[in-house]
């Protein structure tokens, strides 16, 4: 049995919410979770409650960004060979651009 979790407001997280996703949705969710640096539970909870997902830069997020940018480059090379762009790739590019834009703003303000 897993240990009980407290959230940042010292509330017990003892309710389970489950739902099904397609393999493609699962892959996209995994990418977004890795890029956010949050746990899957925290990422999904913030998105469901329409709260901001603030990415905190750390080595794990940096590695995820590097790996996803390499995957995007591979996809762009595939597209250049005459195949089409899929929505998941566009969503991933948008997420990376948002993170990188936030990193630029943070650097500009010296944080």
Q: What's the arrangement of strands in the largest beta sheet? A: 1-2
Percent of residues in beta strands? under 5%
Fraction of residues in H or I helices: 55-70%
**N- to C-terminal distance:** 41 Å
Tell me the total number of β-strands. Answer: 2
Description:
The chain has 111 residues and is mostly helical. The protein has helices at 23-36, 40-48, 59-80, 87-108; strands at 5-6, 12-13. α1 crosses α3 (59-80) and α3 crosses α4 (87-108). The protein is globular, with a radius of gyration of 17 Å. The relative contact order is 0.10. The chain starts with a strand and ends with a helix. A hairpin with a 5-residue loop joins β1 (5-6) and β2 (12-13).
Tags for this model:
globular; 111 residues; 2 strands; two-stranded antiparallel ribbon; 4% strand; 4 helices
Short characterization:
The protein is mainly alpha-helical.
Helix and strand arrangement:
Elements: E1 5-6, E2 12-13, H1 23-36, H2 40-48, H3 59-80, H4 87-108
Antiparallel strand pairs: 1-2
Helix pairs in contact: 1-3, 1-4, 3-4
């Amino acid at each position: 049995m897993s240990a009980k979790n407290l959230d940042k407001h010292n509330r017990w997280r003892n309710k389970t919410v489950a739902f099904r996703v397609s393999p493609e949705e699962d892959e996209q969710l995994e990418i977004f979770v890795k890029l956010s640096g949050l746990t899957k539970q925290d990422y999904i909870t913030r998105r469901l409650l329409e709260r901001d997902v603030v990415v905190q830069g750390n080595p794990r997020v940096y590695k995820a960004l590097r790996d996803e940018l390499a995957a995007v480059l591979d996809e762009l090379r595939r597209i250049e060979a005459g195949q089409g762009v899929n929505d998941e790739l566009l969503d991933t590019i948008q997420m990376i651009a948002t993170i990188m834009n936030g990193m630029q703003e943070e650097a500009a303000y010296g944080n």
